[in-house]
Design goal:
Structural class: alpha+beta
Distance between the termini: 24 Å
Number of strands: 11
Strand order of the largest sheet: 1-5-6-9
Strand content: 5-15%
Number of helices: 11
Shape: globular
Order of helices and strands: HHHHHEEEEEEEEEHEEHHHHH
Largest sheet: 4 strands, mixed
Helix content: 40-55%
Radius of gyration: 20 Å
Length: 354
């Protein structure tokens, strides 16, 4: 990790430690916007980490943004930081000026199509768009004459049907029918709905890796403090075994998420190597989320299931994020198809990247 990485991660960590308290997270679930937290993130430049300084952003490396997202996942930040980074990256790669304020990306599902007609108006609906109602703008990957374009849309111009994720975060259906984008640009080679969804999967993997680290830290701390039969429960072999398994799952998830981030950072588009790494990350991190959440709640017992205990902030997000931008089953199919396309003789070189 470079000195620049350290500065960015340290800044994000301090902000979340000070301003992303359990009370703020619970209030956000009731619809209260965490103004102080978001304003601090904007003032620090973290919301535009992936936007070049020529377009008004911080101009940081792609790896820096993934490092920030892992910290955000660790603190269960109830703001569209990941979505704003994603939108900023897509807009920047298309050469579109990036506005200030919270943003999100649409469509989330790679199979959905938003069309831009000859009249300059959009048509189509995107489902389960994260934080759409909270966003000032939406970066839309659409089609014009069958070719991908990137459009910047004011969220207030769109009709929405509100929904929520398992974690209580906004997941809204957005209709773009009749909406005229503020800006439109041709998408660069390799940037389409599928590429945007792949970037989203990598982002969610980073957030989940951070959330897994949080529940591991919480579980270890609780096991050292909770006394049963005259000694901390962490002294019991069964608890030690469970914590070791949770630590292993967390480490594996972190390694997979890092590999996906590195593959994306290595190029401007989503090539086969990046696609394989993201698929592997989404599968492995999703498996770790399932196993890890179960272990963390078993260690905490009934207390961890109460709404008053902050463990649920991470575990509910882990279960929610597992299904967003494709779940393990969907990415397993894609990874299998990718490997099969290369044939048996190329299996080992493909796996090792040699």
């Amino acid at each position: 990790m470079t000195d620049n990485d350290n500065i960015i991660v340290d800044t994000a960590t301090r902000l979340f430690q000070d301003l992303c308290t359990p009370g703020v997270i619970n209030d956000a679930e009731t619809g209260k916007w965490p103004t102080e937290l978001w304003d601090a993130l904007e003032e620090s430049g973290l919301t535009l980490t992936w936007v070049p300084d020529t377009l008004g952003g911080a101009g940081a490396e792609v790896a820096d943004g993934f490092a920030v997202l892992r910290v955000a996942g660790e603190f269960a930040a109830p703001v569209p930081l990941a979505e704003t980074l994603l939108a900023g990256l897509v807009l920047a790669r298309a050469g579109v000026s990036v506005p200030q304020g919270p943003m999100t990306l649409a469509p989330v599902h790679a199979s959905e199509r938003i069309e831009l007609g000859a009249d300059g108006k959009l048509k189509g609906t995107a489902r389960h768009v994260p934080f759409a109602r909270m966003a000032g703008h939406i970066a839309v990957v659409a089609r014009r004459g069958g070719k991908p374009v990137v459009a910047l849309v004011a969220a207030k111009d769109c009709a929405m049907s509100h929904g929520s994720s398992l974690a209580g975060e906004p997941r809204d259906d957005v209709s773009f029918d009749g909406v005229t984008p503020a800006q439109v640009a041709d998408a660069p080679d390799g940037l389409d709905e599928d590429a945007a969804s792949t970037l989203g999967a990598a982002v969610r993997s980073a957030q989940m890796a951070g959330a897994l680290q949080r529940i591991l830290d919480q579980s270890v701390q609780y096991a050292t403090e909770r006394v049963q039969f005259g000694r901390p429960i962490g002294k019991f072999q069964a608890i030690q075994h469970s914590l070791a398994q949770l630590a292993g799952e967390t480490a594996a998830a972190g390694a997979a998420a890092d590999a996906a981030a590195e593959a994306i950072a290595a190029g401007d588009g989503i090539d086969e190597r990046a696609l394989a790494e993201v698929a592997t990350a989404k599968i492995r991190v999703g498996e770790a989320a399932s196993t890890g959440s179960a272990i963390a709640h078993q260690v905490h017992g009934a207390m961890g299931f109460t709404y008053e205990h902050s463990l649920h902030h991470a575990t509910r997000r882990l279960w929610s994020w597992r299904d967003e931008f494709g779940n393990e089953a969907q990415w397993s199919i894609r990874l299998g198809q990718l490997v099969a396309r290369h044939g048996a003789d190329e299996l080992w070189p493909f796996i090792t990247g040699s």
